[in-house]
Specification:
It is a single chain. The protein has 164 residues and is mostly beta strands. It contains 1 helix and 10 strands. The protein starts with a helix and ends in a 5-residue tail after the last strand. The N terminus is likely disordered. Keywords: Lipoprotein, Signal. This is Gliding motility lipoprotein GldH. It holds the Pfam family GldH_lipo.
Length: 164
C-alpha cells in the first residue's frame, strides 16, 4: 500500500469506528490504583443533554486475570441535582462456572459493560453525580475485601436506547 493510501485508509477506518458508537451520550473511565480499596469511591459528574428522552445507563469495568472472584458486588449511588439520592447494591457475574473471566478482549484485560438502569429520564436540570464503590465479601467472612485486586478501570456510560 502506498503511504498516501495508508493515510487515507487510516482516516476512513477511524471515521467508521467513531460512527459505530452513535448511541454514546457519556462515556468516561477512571483508573484504579494497584487495588481498589473498599472505602474508595469512583465518582462521575454528568450533565445529561436532554431532559425529555430516556437513556440506558451502564457501569463499565476493565479487569485483569488477577481478579479472582466469580462475581462482583457494587454500590452505585446517583445523586440528583436537587439532592435526591438513589442507592443500589448490584451483583454482576464476572466469570463462567469454569472460572474463565467474562468480558470483551483478547489480551489479559477484559472489558465488561454492565447494565445499571434502563429507560432513565433525567428530568431535573443540572449536574448529576454517580458514585461507584465495591462491596465484595469472601464467603464465610463478615468483613469486606479491603483491597480488591484485578480491577484496573471503572467507568460510567450513558447511551441512547437502540431503535428496534
Amino acid at each position: 500500500m502506498k503511504p498516501s493510501s495508508a493515510v487515507l485508509f487510516s482516516i476512513v477506518f477511524s471515521l467508521v469506528l467513531a460512527s459505530c458508537d452513535s448511541n454514546r451520550v457519556f462515556d468516561s473511565y477512571k483508573s484504579v490504583p494497584q487495588s481498589w480499596h473498599k472505602d474508595s469511591v469512583v465518582s462521575f459528574k454528568v450533565n445529561p443533554p436532554d431532559s425529555t428522552k430516556a437513556y440506558n445507563l451502564f457501569v463499565n469495568l476493565r479487569n485483569t486475570n488477577q481478579y479472582k472472584y466469580n462475581n462482583l458486588f457494587l454500590i452505585v449511588e446517583m445523586v440528583f441535582p436537587h439532592g435526591k439520592t438513589i442507592k443500589d447494591t448490584l451483583e454482576y457475574r464476572m466469570a463462567d462456572p469454569s472460572g474463565k473471566l467474562l468480558g470483551e478482549g483478547i489480551t489479559g484485560v477484559k472489558e465488561n459493560k454492565l447494565w445499571y438502569k434502563e429507560q432513565v429520564v433525567f428530568n431535573e436540570t443540572g449536574e448529576y453525580k454517580v458514585n461507584i464503590q465495591h462491596a465484595m465479601r469472601e464467603n464465610g467472612k463478615v468483613n469486606g475485601v479491603v483491597e480488591l485486586e484485578g480491577i484496573t478501570d471503572v467507568g460510567f456510560r450513558i447511551e441512547k436506547p437502540q431503535n428496534k
